[in-house]
Amino acid sequence: MNLDDIRKHIDDIDGQLLDLLSSRADLVHQVGEVKKRDGLQIYAPEREEALLRRLIERNKGRLPEKSIRAIYREIMSAALALEDDLKIAYLGPEGSWTHQAAIKKFGHSVDYTPLPNFSEVFDQVARRRADYGVVPIENSTEGAVNHTLDLFVDSPLQICAQILLRIENCLMADVPREQIKSLYSHPQALAQCRGWILKHFPKADLVEVSSTTRAAQLAKENVADGAAAIGSPAAAEMYGLTVLEESIQDRATNTTRFLVIGEKTCPPTGKDRTSLLFAIHDRPGSLVRALQAFDQFHINMSKIESRPSKRKDWEYIFYVDLSGHCEDPVVKGGIEELEKHCSMVKLLGSYPDAGE
Ligand SMILES: C=C(O[C@@H]1C=C(C(=O)O)C=C[C@H]1O)C(=O)O
C-alpha cells in the first residue's frame, strides 16, 4: 500500500472512532442523569480502574499500557466534564508537580483551581467549593509529606484515589551553564537532587522557595545574578527557560505518591489499599499490641509513619497503609482488633492500589 492509501484507511478509522466516541458521550450523559437523580458521586474511581484493567487485559495490539491509560484518561476526562462541572483543587501553582499529578488523574477537560497551601486544599473541598483535592503524601527519595499527614487528623475528608508520578527534575535557566551562581527550587526538589548539586554546582547558593514554578519565575527574573532553577519541564516552558539538563534527581526512579481527597471513599475494586490513623495509650507494649492486630489477621502493612499528636508533648499519632479494602472481612476484622488497643482509630479511606 502507498502512503495515500494507508492515510485513507486512517481517515476511515478516525471517522469511526469519532462516531463511537459520540455514542459513548450520549451514554455518559445518561449516566450523569442517573447519578444526579440518585445523589451519586460523579467521579467513580473504582469504575475507571475496572475499565482500565479490563482494557489492558484485553489489549492484543501494539499500544503499550501507558498509552492506553493516557488515551482513556482524556476520554474519561471529557466524560466527567459532560456529567458535571467538576472542580479539582490542587497544591499550586500551575506547572507544579501536583498540577501534573492532577492532570494525570483527571485529564484536561475538567476545571482546576491552584491553591497556595495544603490547608486551603483540604478546606475548599470540605466547604464543597471544589469536588476533589490533590495533595502529595510521600516521595520515594525524601519520604513523608508531614503537613498532609497532619491535616488528616482533624479533617472529615476521605481518600478516594492515589496517583503515582515519576518526578524527573531538570536544570533550567536563561543563562549558560558556566554562569550559574544560584539554584532556586522547592526544598523537596533540592533534596531529591542533593548528590547531583554537590557534584556539579558545589559552590552555588541554594535558594529555597515555595514551589518549583516560583523557582522558574525567579530564575527568569534574576538572570543578571546567574540564577537557575530546578523543577519540572512544564515550569521551564511556562517561563521560557532553556532546559540545560534533564532528569537530574539522584534516584532515577524518584516517584511521588499523591492522594485524591473528597467527601466519600471508593468502593472495592479487588486490588485496594486502606489508609488509617491511630493513637495508642501511653503504656508498655501498646504499639506492639496494636500492630499485632494486623499480623493476627494476616494483613500486609505497607507503610507506617509517626507524627507528634500536637495535643500533648511526646504523644504520637501513627499513620498506616494496609493492603485490602476496609469492607473486606479480613481488613474489617483487623481494624476491629486494632480498636481494642488504641485510644483513637480513624479510617481515612480505601482506594484502588494502582498508579500507572
Ligand atoms: C461515566 C461514568 O462517570 C465517570 C466517567 C467514566 C467513563 O468515562 O467511563 C467512568 C467513571 C466515572 O468517573 C460512570 O460512572 O460510569
UniProtKB/TrEMBL annotation:
Location relative to the cell: Cytoplasm
Prephenate dehydratase domain ranges (all copies): 87-263
Entry keyword annotation includes Lyase: yes
Signal peptide: none
SMART domains: CM_2
Catalytic activity: chorismate = prephenate; prephenate + H(+) = 3-phenylpyruvate + CO2 + H2O
Occurrences of domain Chorismate mutase (ranges): 1-87
Domain ACT: 275-352
Keyword Cell inner membrane: no
This enzyme's EC code(s): 4.2.1.51, 5.4.99.5
Family annotation (Pfam families): ACT, CM_2, PDT
Pathway(s) annotated for this protein in UniProt: Metabolic intermediate biosynthesis; prephenate biosynthesis; prephenate from chorismate: step 1/1; Amino-acid biosynthesis; L-phenylalanine biosynthesis; phenylpyruvate from prephenate: step 1/1
InterPro entries the record matches: ACT-like_dom_sf, ACT_dom, Chor_mutase/pphenate_deHydtase, Chorismate_II_sf, CM_dom_sf, CM_II_prokaryot, G/b/e-P-prot_chorismate_mutase, Preph_deHydtase
Molecular function, one GO term: prephenate dehydratase activity
Keywords attached to this entry: Amino-acid biosynthesis, Aromatic amino acid biosynthesis, Cytoplasm, Isomerase, Lyase, Multifunctional enzyme, Phenylalanine biosynthesis
NCBIfam families: CM_P2, PRK11898.1
Function: Catalyzes the Claisen rearrangement of chorismate to prephenate and the decarboxylation/dehydration of prephenate to phenylpyruvate.
Protein name per UniProt: Bifunctional chorismate mutase/prephenate dehydratase
Species this protein is from: Luteolibacter arcticus
